[in-house]
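Thread: UPF0056 membrane protein, structure

OP (GT): Posting the sequence first so everyone is looking at the same thing. Length is 189 residues per the record. Can we get the structure tokens written out before standup tomorrow? I want them in the notebook alongside the other entries.
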Amino acid sequence: MFSFDQIFTISFTLFAVIDILGSVPILISLREKIGEISAAKATLASGVLMVLFLMVGEPFLRLMSVDVQSFAVAGSIVIFVIGLEMILGIEFFKSDNDTKTGSLVPIAFPLIAGSGTLTTIMSLKADFNDSNIFAGIFINLVIIYVVLRSLSFIERILGKAGLMVIRKFFGVILLAIAVKIFKSNIGNI
């Protein structure tokens, strides 16, 4: 049932796709706009989305007449806008100053449990046992929670100048990821 090799592979794959460490500058930027981020709510919402997508993702998208590729393209556009915001310093995401929704949108979705993560989970299902995927999701949720709880500490370590450099750098990386997701899925729609 449980395979440590599978759990390791799944955990590492999800860790790379979620890229919570690369999202730190985005998260700090969003925290400045919306106030404090609820690590527990964002982690729980991300976990619920990942597990739901594991169980009923593809049938749900089919029910809504949306294919996985269209879902991935839509997610890539949101990621692209967040990347532009980081690089240009222009605010596209307008906060409603409600920390309850700010922890969920855009943090839980699409930043953590975005189209790349959800599509990856569906594709992992083809090759791995569901119980091992659950374990991989859980391991990543623990990492996500720790990073979200440590944002202030990470911000102090990096300083304002370090955060600015990292924010711009990861903004470009985020744009590249968005373009890659868009490019690999637009031809299949």
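GT: Both are above now. Quick notes for whoever picks this up: Residues 72 and 184 are 9 Å apart (CA to CA). Helices lie at 4-18, 24-34, 39-63, 68-88, 99-112, 115-125, 130-149, 151-186.
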